[in-house]
Amino acid sequence: MKSPAVRHRADLCPGVLRPWPAEDGALVRLRLVGGRVEPDALVGLLRVAESHGDGTVHLTKRANLQLRGLPADGDCLAPELVEEIAATGLLPFPSHELVRNIMVSPLSGLDSPLARDLQSPGDSESRARGRADLRPVARELDEGLCAHPSLAALPGRFLFVLDDGRGDLLDRSLDLGLVAVSSSECQLRMGTRAWGPVVPLEEAAGRLVGLARAFITVRGEGPTAAWHVDELPARTDDHPRDPRIEVPNAPPPYGVVAPGVAHVTVPDGVLTREQLDDLLADEPDHLVVTPWRSVVVVDRVV
């Protein structure tokens, strides 16, 4: 087994208030909880990119958004530019902007409903469509993280991954997370290798917030403090992996994946004005950025 990394500095993962000085200008990252973004917010962000950056919005492998080529005032963006970005609504919790790293199965809650609990644990269609809608869990988790001032100290690379049981995020590295094993239960994850208990879905967000607070207390201090759960000493109270959790599943195909829901490719994960106009042509309710640097377009209110 690979030895945990030994850190010698704090992480430098970028945000709006902590841009990264790239060769083409400042780079900023905006976190999307579960990848969800409103059309008006994306239009506003592209307008900022056209006025100040490279003219495009970049999609990341963590289902977030980035702007590149921005002018910087020393180590910061100019206050006026920060205000323009904040006006999109994509910077709701400035103090916690770096730690709102919550990845969710992009189609969670958007599939046609199935009687999942009446199907066998290995039913392929049930897994392909997910076992639970994790969007409420993600929202509660985000609110819980931002409610605790101490959690603003989580590393910017610390990642929560919520798989709704379809297995599309099962092979993602993570710090904390869960996998739905039924419509009302999930198994917690603590690092990439360790499994926690099976708990009611309604308790999951609170449990994850508690585990994040515990990580803050044990990660250490100063430049050698751990960035990830996997860098902590191995746990001795691991639980067995629930047998209802099977193997990782492939991303959804491109095209219509459910009534009013389409998975759309974005070449190289770079969103231009022309591409955004095409995505918004039918006035969708909202979009979901995926970890595959693509977009789910949701035309109906779900």
Structure keywords:
single chain; 302 residues; Sulfite Reductase Hemoprotein, domain 2; 15 strands; Sulfite Reductase Hemoprotein, domain 1; alpha+beta; five-stranded antiparallel sheet; globular
Strand content: 15-25%
Rg computed from alpha carbons, rounded to a whole number of angstroms? 19 Å
The biggest sheet, with number of strands, parallel, antiparallel or mixed sense and barrel status, is: 5 strands, antiparallel
Separation of the first and last Cα atoms:
43 Å
Shape verdict: globular
Order of helices and strands: EEEHEEHEHHEEEEHEEEHEE
Residue stretches low in confidence (pLDDT < 50, at least 5 long) are 113-126
What oligomeric state is this? single chain
Find the CATH topology of the largest domain.
Sulfite Reductase Hemoprotein, domain 1
Number of domains: 2
Give the tally of β-strands.
Answer: 15
What helical percentage do the residues reach? 10-25%
Count of individual helical segments: 6
- Write down the overall mean pLDDT: 90
Strand order of the largest sheet: 1-2-5-4-13
**CATH architecture descriptor of the largest domain:** 2-Layer Sandwich
CATH class of the largest domain: Alpha Beta
Structural class: alpha+beta
